[in-house]
Amino acid sequence: MMFDFSNELAPGTYFDPHFKIDAVKILPGEYYVTPRDIVIVTVLGSCVSVCLRDRTSGIGGMNHFMLPGTSDEGGHLLSTSARYGVYAIEILINHLLTLGAQRRHFEAKVFGGASVLRGFGTNNVGNRNAEFVLDYLHTEGIPVVAQDLLDTYPRKVYFFPSS
Questions:
Q1: H-type helices in 77-143, by residue range?
Q2: Rounded to two decimals, what is the model's pTM?
């Protein structure tokens, strides 16, 4: 996870020559939040990424989680790891709010959930991740303005939070 929002050169930061802009690559279990004009990049298979932004301020971020990670019967999180969707989305929202984003202006784009490995028809992780993320965002009242979920192919996602 990357926490130092004041650091202009966070780990995984590079200059993207194609888009001619600074970029940050996130890996499974990571997330990145920024008020800067930057591109956030990840590669997904069965994992899911939520690209969340305040459409008014342009403050935004992306996570990359591997499993839904629902809570136990008492409503407690099973893990405080960003590898799990429940925690990954909560921490993404909280950091956006910390930077000054306003919840009423949130919009989300969601990607991933592919079934990239043959023979995993039952207990399909990608399908569970896709169902989880759509249910979670619906429950939180966050509109999903774009999605590319499921199917059988991996994705490379470039997210420009400011636009």
A1: 85-98, 125-139
A2: 0.85
Q: How is 135-154 classified by DSSP, letter by letter?
A: HHHHHTT--EEEEEE-SS--
Q: Decide: 97 and 60 in contact? Cβ < 8 Å.
A: no
HSE-CB of 99 using CA atoms within 13 angstroms? 22
- CB 113 within 8 Å of CB 150: yes
21-36 pLDDT, tens digit per residue, is: 999 999 998 999 999 9
Helix (H, G, I), strand (E, B) or coil at 64: coil
pLDDT (average), residues 139-143: 97
Higher pLDDT, 5 or 46: 46
- Tokens representing residue 73 in the block: 């019967």
- For residue 70, give Cα distances in angstroms to 31, 62, 82, 83: 19, 20, 12, 12
